[in-house]
Amino acid sequence: MNGLRALEQQLDWNDVRFFLAVARRRTLARAAAALGVDQTTVGRRIASLEARLGVSLFTRSAGVFQPSRAGRGVLEAAERMEEAALELRSRAAGEEIATVRVATTESMAGVFIVPAVRSLRTSHPHIQVTVTTGWAQVDLRKGEADLAVRLVRPTDPRLACRKLADFRLRLYASRTYLSGRAAPTSLAGEALIAYEEALPLGTRHPFARMPMEGGALVLLSNSQQVLLAAAAAGVGIVQLPSFVADSHPDLVRVFPEVEEAYSVWLVVPQANRRIASVRAVSEAIAGEFRRRREPRPPPRVRRPPRDR
């Protein structure tokens, strides 16, 4: 640890920004684009940092930069400096930042975040919101967003979280697809529509763990709007969040006994909790989830045994 702190004292934050960009994006061109400078500037700053430290920070092969053994040590120190810089930004912002960046999925953005921004306009018209969608998680500790609405609860103590809702993934098909036939009893022989990212091993299963053997994957996409449109057009069976598909007039649920539960979390870096605009956006989002929360099924009533 002492060696790491000594290394941090040798690093200049301006050089660290360039080092981190190259370490994460692997090429000078992509790093330059992220930093808003030209490629030559990035290469010069990396060479200057290596000369000052007296080590090679990257191995180069066909224009691709991989952190060397020394570079991996510098990366740890650089990320600590980055976190400190982000916390400093949060403290300096005090009670206000003009634009709050929200990261979430496409479905939740359309159903929950956009209505939340609409209600926010009434009470906080000066706040601008930038919404980024996608399955890949942004790194809140590195300042890639100010808050996130996620499907996974974080374990990092530097991130504060609160549960927004419990939802379910269910299977749906259009009335056109099901017309003139018996309800399906398995996915065998069925046309299937799936999230592209859900197919690799280890990620969320695209059909609530149902066996897919014998089914034909006819359409893959990383866009929920595409999957929803395909299902409504009668292309095949798809798994969708219940809050999306249950309100669609052309879709009906298939395999009603099959569903997969999941929770949604609002995640904010601890340092950002002090910023008034971040708190305002967080409360607007939480309020929208409360208004649209799915009703829980009524509890089962146990009937007293009959007298014999």
List the main descriptive attributes of the protein structure presented here.
single chain, 308 residues, alpha/beta, Arc Repressor Mutant, subunit A, D-Maltodextrin-Binding Protein, domain 2, eight-stranded mixed β-sheet, two-stranded antiparallel ribbon, 10 helices, 24% strand, globular
Task: Kindly summarize this structure in a few lines.
With about 300 residues, the protein is an alpha/beta fold. The chain is built from ten helices and ten strands.
Quaternary state of this entry equals: single chain
Count the E strands: 10
Sequence of strands across the biggest β-sheet: 4-3-5-10-6-9-7-8
**What ranges have pLDDT less than 50 throughout 5 or more consecutive residues?**
300-305
Number of domains: 3
**Terminal residue distance:** 76 Å
Average pLDDT figure: 85
* CATH homology superfamily name of the largest domain: Periplasmic binding protein-like II
Strand content: 15-25%
What's the order of the H and E elements? HHHHEEHEHEEEHEEHEHEH
Biggest sheet layout: 8 strands, mixed
Name of the top-level CATH class of the largest domain: Alpha Beta
The class by helix and strand makeup works out as alpha/beta
Give the C-alpha Rg. Answer: 25 Å
